[in-house]
Amino acid sequence: MGNNFLKWILTLCMFYLVSGEGCSLVLKPSRIVVGFGEPVSVSCEATRPVRVLGWESAISAAHTQQELSVQWKVDSLIDWIEEPICYGVFFTAPRQCEEKLNLVLYKTPDSVSIRPVNHTGPMVAGKEYQLLCEVQNIAPVQYLTLRWYKGQTEVYNNSFSELTSSSPVQVSSVLIVTPTKDENGAQYRCVAELELGPEGPRTPPTVTSEPLNASVYFPPTFLSPEPEVLELVVGAEMTLDCTATGNPTPVYSWQSSNPSEERMEDGAALTSSSLVPGTYTCTASNALEKKSKHFTVKAKTKGV
């Protein structure tokens, strides 16, 4: 039992001394961020005399028996599973230790695009819709933030820190919108941004989708919706205006309570010098709804 206990203690000590504090190896830099296909170079230095100093690497192993430093260098890094480890075999205890390089290989996406989900054509004001942002071949995804913009304003963002893949993947984000009539013509964009930390590029790499121009249908709304009462001045030109906003653009029709009234032109405003007392009704309509506005034309009171 005593021998087994001693072996356990020795194993624990060796585990502690293999890496981390007391390893006597220093990586310069200790964390490096590299774009896909770019060159990379990292130095491993021993802080005490070393028998063998080297790098374990899938594509660029290196070692030395003479110097206190050894370099790991790749002209074009394209290996997504590369995990370089610097190791040292020393003359004195601890005789072996290693340090793993914190290497981040990143790639901007091939494409970023947005589209409506299960919908084509214009949206209708007041109804709920989903917009989908799709990102193709980005790495590493855990550093990605997708930012949604309406015009110049960020309205939502989505991160993927819970994912762990180091190689390129496809991800997506959904934005739920309930457009209003004021958002007709608004532009939506999705921006993929890699936030790689202080060792990464000074400006985070970003790729932006083509804008999605929102076409929003909404029913006619009169600029002045309340009924109007006008006094007739014989021979004077009068204008009844029922201009309305709407998408699609409203079309207008007029009706008069006076059966002798000639057919009136279809337009937002009725202008005439031959109107007669009575009620005039304007109807503005588009694909969504019809709305009416009433005008009452009264004869001028005598003596006034």
Question: What does this protein structure show overall?
Answer:
By secondary structure, the chain is mainly beta. It contains one helix and 26 strands. It has one helix spanning 2-18, and strands at residues 25-28, 31-35, 40-46, 50-56, 62-64, 69-74, 85-90, 96-100, 102-106, 111-116, 123-124, 129-138, 144-150, 153-159, 169-177, 187-194, 206-208, 212-213, 216-222, 228-232, 238-241, 244-247, 251-256, 269-272, 278-285, 290-299. The strands form eight sheets. Strands 13, 14, 16, 17 and 18 form a five-stranded antiparallel sheet that branches. A four-stranded antiparallel sheet has the order 5-4-7-8. The protein has a four-stranded mixed sheet with strand order 20-26-25-23, with no helix packed on it. It starts with a helix and ends in a 5-residue tail after the last strand. Mean pLDDT is 89; it is low at 1-19.
What structural class do you assign from the helix and strand content?
A: mainly beta
**Helix count from the secondary structure assignment:** 1
pLDDT averaged residue by residue = 89
Strand content: over 45%
Write down the overall geometry: rod-shaped
Topology as H/E string? HEEEEEEEEEEEEEEEEEEEEEEEEEE
Radius of gyration (Å): 37 Å
Largest sheet: 5 strands, antiparallel
Helicity, as a percent range: under 10%
Distance between the termini: 123 Å
| Low-confidence runs of at least 5 consecutive residues | 1-19
Strand element count:
26
